[in-house]
Automatic annotation (TrEMBL):
Residues 21-401 form the Major facilitator superfamily (MFS) profile domain. It holds the Pfam family MFS_1. Keywords: Cell membrane, Membrane, Transmembrane, Transmembrane helix, Transport. It comes from Nocardioides eburneus. CDD domains: MFS_MdtG_SLC18_like (cd17325). The chain crosses the membrane at residues 38-66, 149-169, 175-194, 223-240, 252-275, 287-304, 310-334. Its main location: membrane. This is MFS transporter. It is found in: Cell membrane. PANTHER family: INTEGRAL MEMBRANE TRANSPORT PROTEIN, RESISTANCE PROTEIN MDTM, PUTATIVE-RELATED-RELATED.
Length: 420
């Protein structure tokens, strides 16, 4: 088991680090995501039941993403003012209130506004938990901690729909909002009961606040227009994957049950890879995961139009899930690597804004190309974007992360040993 040495507390294993941050970060993240998973399948259904058109129901699905984009930058100020753990408590509380509106108020306008607020709260929660782990875990174990955080996110989203379905079977469609309320309230209680962790002793503490978002952007403009664009492309390709798989399944005539089975197997593969991903990043550098992840996603998308039956579609879906799974936590890890000590939260807010913008734009890429050509061409173009993202990461990650390659990892370990 890998050890890291804190100058104050001595050596700490990866398992010990994960146990230490589980009550204050990993478990709350999992429980919080159960709520998001519970409501994801029923947002459009609730809108349709209130008389919305199909187009408006589709717009409701995008409200959470739009809310996240709108909330990314303000989230930094809130986290700096309240502290990461208290910001997560605040986000959980307001999310519960927004979910109560979704559950109790039969109005499309109320649903849309509540989903925007919930999306903004998600931005606060995600930013605060990333900054928190970046501060309390040593650099040597950062990737494992953040990839495990990403794994907690995936597990919560996986469990949520099942709990939501059980509630719906007994109390009706809107009962899924009740499941989400319970999960967010439980998250807030968990965060209130656990103490803050001490800052990692292998570097100076991050300086909170002290600069505007505009000043941070100007100071790191070159990074955001190089590595930041690669991050945006990564978010776009990952989000598009969730769209193109069901679209292509429908295109080749698969029924809903078969499509769901393909998704289930692929998601199981995805969830199983989060810890190995972090282990490889910590031992061999960030590029050992970042480039293969996007290459597999890109190649998988380009192969997707060649599938004409459930078996081949399933194989390609698994390949894409391997690519997505081994990339668990990579964007959060690269953001933590590149973030300056002064104004770290503000930097990460801009970083997340790029990633969230990619997530929002991703499904539009194959749709826009398909509107002028064919779905196969749209999927292939999205695959090319994945390969472009891999090339961008290969070029720019070494410039902004001191943990990019095996040689950089060895050099960092040697520095730590000399310092110890």
């Amino acid at each position: 088991m890998t050890e890291t040495r804190d100058p104050v507390t001595g050596p700490e294993t990866a398992a010990a680090v994960l146990r230490r941050i589980a009550p204050s970060a990993l478990l709350p993240a999992l429980v919080y995501e159960i709520g998001n998973g519970a409501i994801a399948p029923i947002i459009a259904l609730v809108a349709l039941a209130e008389g919305a058109s199909t187009a408006v129901a589709g717009l409701m699905l995008s409200m959470l993403g739009i809310g996240r984009i709108l909330g990314d930058v303000p989230a930094a100020r809130l986290a700096d003012r309240l502290g990461d753990r208290r910001a997560m408590v605040c986000a959980s509380t307001v999310t519960a209130a927004g979910l109560a509106v979704c559950w109790a108020v039969p109005s499309i306008v109320a649903l849309a506004l509540a989903l925007l607020v919930i999306g903004a709260c998600n931005a606060t929660f995600y930013l605060a938990r990333q900054t928190y782990i970046s501060d309390v875990v040593s650099i040597e174990l950062r990737a494992r901690a953040l990839s495990t955080l990403a794994g907690s996110h995936r597990i919560g989203l996986f469990i949520g729909p099942f709990l939501g379905a059980a509630a719906i079977a007994v109390w009706g469609t809107r009962a899924a909002f009740g499941v989400a309320i319970l999960s967010t309230v439980a998250t807030g209680v968990l965060l209130l009961l656990v103490p803050d962790q001490e800052h990692a002793g292998d570097r100076p503490p991050a300086h909170r606040g002290g600069g505007s978002t505009t000043a941070m952007y100007r100071a790191h403009q070159q990074l955001f227009w190089t590595l930041g664009l690669a991050v945006l492309a990564v978010g776009a390709v990952r989000a598009a994957r969730q769209t193109v798989l069901p679209l292509w399944a429908e295109h080749i005539g698969l029924d809903a049950a078969t499509t769901s089975l393909v998704f289930g197997v692929a998601n199981a593969v995805d969830m199983s890879l989060f810890y190995p991903s972090g282990h490889v990043m910590d031992r061999l550098g960030r590029l050992a995961v970042a480039v293969p992840s996007m290459t597999l996603l890109g190649v998988g998308m380009m192969l997707l139009p060649l599938s004409h039956d459930a078996l081949l579609l399933g194989v390609i879906a698994v390949v894409m899930s391997i690519g997505n799974g081994i990339g668990s936590g990579i964007m959060m890890t690269l953001g933590a690597d590149a973030a300056p000590a002064r104004g770290r939260t503000t930097f990460l807010a801009i970083w997340r804004l790029l990633s969230d913008s990619g997530n929002a734009l991703g499904p539009l890429v194959p749709a826009a190309v398909a509107a002028t050509a064919t779905l196969a061409v749209g999927v292939s173009v999205t695959g090319l974007l994945g390969l472009a993202a891999a090339a961008g990461l290969a070029r720019w990650v070494p410039r902004h992360s001191t943990y990019a390659t095996p040689a950089m990892v060895r050099a960092h370990h040697a520095t730590i040993r000399r310092g110890g």
